[in-house]
Amino acid sequence: MKSFLIDRYEKGGALRLADHPQPELRENDVLVEVHAASVNALDAKIRNGEFKLILPYRLPLILGNDVAGVVARVGSGVRRFRPGDEVYARPAQDRIGTFAEYIAMDEADVALKPNNLTMQEAASIPLVALTAWQVLVERANLQKGQKVLIHAGSGGVGTIAIQLAKYLGAQVATTTSTANIELVESLGADVAIDYKRDEFEEVLRDYDVVLNSLGTDTLTNSLAVLKAGGKLISISGPPDREFAKANGSNWLLQQVMRLLSLGIRRKAKHRGVSYSFLFMTANGGQLSQITSLIEAGAIRPVVDRIFPFEKTNEALEYVETGRAKGKVVISVA
């Protein structure tokens, strides 16, 4: 099969097109013929080596963290899927590799594809929708009537998180550029703040939850919009000790991550709010619940561009510009 991979960590380096055997199938695996895969900023960060301490991959490494396709074969222990099923998934972090013609994944990480989406649309969903779910439902326990600020509302996570928060009954504010105000409002944002014109921390007050996906300044300034007892949850760091422990990191790395997040945790505590870092995990059960919301019309994908498989490097370059509205997808099969 053909795939796009990296041989070494290199900032801005091009992925190499390679040809090698299909992945081996474990007892609980499904082998999926990839029809589409989406491109995430995470792929660029992995290529750049930003996660090599907490995600110790063996090189060469096929990139890609989202997939939609058709089950080709199943392992002897698989009970939920059979050949011919149309599925989608975010593979487990130690088994990524969707920039390829085939990928093997544990059936626990896989869900049936929403029947009202194309393969390309479905491939845009898993990583960002699971991220939004794990922040808003699991970590924040967002309730009807609460107020949530979602940064970067026109991005991959933001477009889904706005819709999920509205489904949960929350009041939603978001930050975005002038050109994307209409988009985020169409997704359900009650308050859309143009970051080129206004400072969000001067406009918003008494929020219950903030979902941060941006840099240090935005993270720190987000504390000002939270009420006492509020939750600041970041998917862009800094990582904390709780994440390190859950990730199985050794004692030394746990201390390093504790120190990395010490400043923001102290500032949060001073304001009577909490800070936590979330690195989403694969979960086919949660993805099945998201499928139900998609089929019911509560969540829709936002796809900016679709690239052919052979232009995977161009797709990754486009994602790195930060200008994509929603997701960027590569069409494989």
From TrEMBL:
Keyword annotations of the record: Oxidoreductase
Pfam families the UniProt entry points to: ADH_N (PF08240), ADH_zinc_N_2 (PF13602)
Domain Enoyl reductase (ER): 12-330
Name this protein carries in UniProt: NADPH:quinone oxidoreductase
Natural source organism: Phyllobacterium endophyticum
Organism classification: Bacteria, Pseudomonadati, Pseudomonadota, Alphaproteobacteria, Hyphomicrobiales
GO MF annotations in UniProt: oxidoreductase activity; zinc ion binding
Superkingdom classification of source: Bacteria
Record-linked InterPro entries: ADH-like_N, ER, GroES-like_sf, NAD(P)-bd_dom_sf, Quin_OxRdtase/zeta-crystal_CS, YIM1/Zinc_Alcohol_DH_Fams
